[in-house]
Amino acid sequence: MPRYCAVKACRNRGRTAFKKANKRISFYPFPLHDEPRLQKWMGNIKQGEWTPSRHQYVCSEHFTEDCFDIRWGIRYLKNTAIPTLFLSTEHVVVLQHKL
Ligand SMILES: [Zn+2]
């Protein structure tokens, strides 16, 4: 099933991972099992009253490089990562960083 990014302004969708302008885009599920962290994700994504499901994802473009661990060439999202990068028309808005 193709995945898509839950961030409204973001058009990324596709398979589990793909390349866009030489950047690797991958999709990460919401931390539904980790309520405090989920609240931070929701606070940053700002889409009003809405509850993400197990089938919704946020793409790697909303995370800074230090949110990832790379092992054996595979990029993993750290279990403390919070999405902080959101495109607002032409500007990249950097929200207050995690923790
Ligand atoms: Zn996205």
TrEMBL record:
Localization (cell): Nucleus
Residues in THAP-type domain copies: 1-86
Domain of life assignment: Eukaryota
PROSITE patterns: ZF_THAP (PS50950)
Identification of the protein by name: THAP domain-containing protein 5
InterPro entries, alphabetized: THAP_domain_protein, THAP_Znf
Keywords: Coiled coil, DNA-binding, Metal-binding, Nucleus, Zinc, Zinc-finger
One annotated Gene Ontology cellular component of this protein: nucleus
Database matches in Pfam families: THAP
Principal location: nucleus
PANTHER family: AGAP005574-PA, THAP DOMAIN-CONTAINING PROTEIN 5
This protein's record includes keyword Coiled coil: yes
SMART domains, sorted: DM3 (SM00692), THAP (SM00980)
Protein species of origin: Mastacembelus armatus (zig-zag eel)
One GO MF term attached to the UniProt entry: zinc ion binding
